């Protein structure tokens, strides 16, 4: 990852405005402006009814993200904006625009962009909600002044006899006071709107998807009551009513931008201890570090939760690594959540915002936050497996008596990964306690098939080296490099609440080392020895301190809250809802939210 990308969430060094044309499924062109800041993260902004990317709310929102170093893309839906391929402007349906948005999302995902959020104004708000109900690949949705009751307003625009007209002519031309046709409503688009069940769509949005609805109290087109209806049916929903704001937020542009930006940025800086998508990103940071050093990443190997991380990595980044080894990963994450947190985990997480998991003695072992849990439940393992390309070889290894993850999960991995090998180790438990040598042999033999014949000659050991790599959130990923003379490197990922120093990771690293293949085992952010220190602190003082920030395994208990957050922390939290703690260079190290 480049230095510019390291700083991507905060201040952009270079801003580029670029015209981008994307073709939708019907051959129509979707024209947009990319506010490129150099960040991998991207926010997509959707306009409203008979509007365009160049209307004030869309432009101001794009510039607000740009100023914060986050790339943004505002575009025209088909039939809107500058490029209208019809003689008479026409109105598209709700689902058509959701599909246009899908094409835009896929376009940028194909460029290895991370879609941080989709934001929609007015009819665009409905489009982003419908998108979220169909596709679960974007975890932050912002609905600005969207309409809940879609039947309302049709008679006012089209007349009380609109149904007879649409049946007779197949379309209705809406004219202004001078008799000039302003736009055309087709039968297809009208039926699409009337058939859209907003309530059902809202209820279909997964709990892992964070949704913000913003509405003005004096909206002259969509009554504020519609915003309240959204809050009733969307599972993970925030509602913000802007006093005195109209439909276009004419006198409230700065306030609107601040509300949306702050909500979206909470999805950019997370302080929980490593959900699966974050761990895949940590792994990406490690791989990029070694690629810059001209190393060939021969394979990535993950145990338990690390198995999920390597599978998720392979589904997102398919150019870097062609060999993946998943050791005892979990396929059914919903079952895992129930097993670990209890059947009533949904109620607990909604009530408290976190769940403390205790051992038999009643001592807290670890804390699961709501954001962490939503990330886990929002991970579609089946879709991730199906997204792994055919040229990527995957091995899944499972123990027949695994006490944590049932062996049936291994079979499910084999059903959905195209180029897959499955190996069941008879009698092995989750940690392969009595089967370390067998595990090492299985993994080593599979990985070595990726070496050229003349490369498999053992190389001499150069030593063990501690390596510290910064992830995109400023946290340090500390690992041990088992360095040989080979350029090939295998990266080894640990499991849930584990570390690089657990037996499976250590033994696998030494097995590769003995074969002359370099290996790197590392701790994900929030894990390792420092993670244990924070967990021990939480188990003793969980009634007094509600925030624990673990960066590179270090926590200074003597430093007071004012020293870390400043004397005006209360005012800042009340004003912004969070405080970003920065280093001397002005770079954000981590975020402290008001809730925590």
Automatic annotation (TrEMBL):
What InterPro entries does the record tag this protein with?
AB_hydrolase_fold, Hydrolase_4
Query: What Pfam families does UniProt report for this protein, alphabetically?
Result: Hydrolase_4
What the entry lists under SUPFAM superfamilies is as follows: alpha/beta-Hydrolases (SSF53474)
Residues forming the Serine aminopeptidase S33 domain are 40-152
Task: Give the top-rank taxon of the lineage listed in the UniProt record for this protein.
Answer: Eukaryota
Q: Could you tell me which PANTHER family the record lists for this protein?
A: ALPHA_BETA-HYDROLASES SUPERFAMILY PROTEIN, RE40534P-RELATED
Q: What is this protein called?
A: Serine aminopeptidase S33 domain-containing protein
Q: What organism does this protein naturally occur in?
A: Buddleja alternifolia
């Amino acid at each position: 990852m480049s230095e510019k990308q390291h700083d991507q969430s905060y201040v952009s060094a270079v801003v580029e405005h670029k015209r981008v044309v994307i073709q939708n499924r019907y051959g129509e062109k979707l024209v947009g402006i990319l506010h490129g800041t150099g960040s991998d993260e991207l926010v997509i902004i959707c306009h409203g009814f008979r509007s365009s990317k160049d209307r004030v709310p869309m432009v101001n929102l794009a510039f607000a993200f740009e100023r914060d170093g986050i790339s943004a893309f505002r575009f025209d839906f088909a039939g809107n904006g500058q490029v209208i391929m019809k003689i008479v402007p026409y109105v598209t349906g709700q689902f058509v625009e959701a599909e246009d948005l899908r094409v835009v999302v896929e376009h940028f995902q194909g460029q290895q962009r991370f879609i941080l959020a989709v934001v929609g104004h007015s009819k665009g708000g409905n489009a982003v909600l419908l998108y979220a109900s169909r596709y679960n690949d974007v975890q932050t949705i912002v609905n600005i002044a969207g309409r809940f009751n879609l039947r309302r307003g049709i008679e006012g625009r089209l007349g009380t006899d609109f149904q007879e007209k649409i049946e007779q002519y197949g379309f209705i031309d809406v004219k202004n006071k001078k008799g000039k046709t302003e736009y055309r409503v087709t039968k297809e688009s009208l039926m699409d709107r009337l058939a859209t069940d907003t309530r059902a769509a809202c209820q279909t949005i997964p709990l892992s998807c964070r949704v913000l609805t913003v509405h003005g109290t004096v909206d002259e087109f969509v009554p504020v009551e519609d915003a309240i209806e959204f809050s009733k049916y969307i599972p993970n929903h925030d509602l913000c009513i802007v006093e005195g704001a109209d439909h276009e937020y004419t006198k409230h542009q700065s306030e609107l931008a601040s509300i949306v930006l702050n909500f979206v940025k909470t999805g950019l800086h997370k302080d929980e201890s490593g959900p699966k998508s974050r761990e895949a990103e940590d792994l990406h940071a490690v791989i990029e570090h070694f690629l810059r050093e001209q190393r060939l990443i021969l394979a990535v190997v993950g145990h338990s939760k690390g198995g999920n991380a390597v599978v998720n990595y392979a589904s997102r980044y398919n150019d870097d690594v062609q060999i993946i080894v998943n050791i005892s990963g979990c396929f059914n994450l919903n079952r895992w959540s129930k097993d670990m947190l209890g059947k009533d985990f949904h109620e607990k997480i909604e009530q408290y915002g976190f769940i403390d998991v205790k051992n038999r003695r009643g001592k807290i072992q670890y804390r699961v936050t709501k954001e962490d849990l939503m990330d886990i439940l929002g991970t579609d393992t089946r879709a991730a497996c199906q997204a792994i390309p055919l040229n990527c070889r995957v091995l899944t290894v499972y123990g027949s008596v695994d006490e944590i993850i049932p062996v049936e999960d291994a079979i499910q991995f084999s059903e959905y990964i195209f180029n897959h090998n499955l190996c069941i180790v008879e009698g092995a438990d989750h940690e392969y306690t009595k089967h370390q040598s067998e595990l090492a042999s299985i993994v080593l033999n599979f990985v070595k098939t990726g070496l050229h014949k003349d490369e498999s000659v053992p190389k001499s050991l150069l030593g063990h080296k501690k390596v510290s790599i910064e992830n995109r959130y400023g946290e340090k990923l500390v690992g041990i490099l088992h360095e040989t003379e080979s350029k090939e490197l295998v990266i080894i990922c640990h499991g849930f609440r584990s570390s690089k120093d657990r037996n499976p990771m250590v033994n696998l690293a030494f097995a590769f080392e003995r074969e002359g293949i370099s290996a790197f085992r590392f701790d994900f952010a929030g894990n390792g020895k420092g993670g244990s220190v924070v967990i021990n602190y939480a188990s003793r003082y969980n009634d007094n301190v509600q925030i624990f920030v673990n960066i590179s395994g270090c926590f200074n208990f003597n430093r007071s809250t004012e020293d870390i957050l400043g004397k005006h922390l209360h005012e800042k939290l009340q004003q912004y809802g969070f405080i970003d703690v920065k280093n001397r260079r002005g770079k954000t190290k981590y975020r402290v939210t008001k809730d925590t």
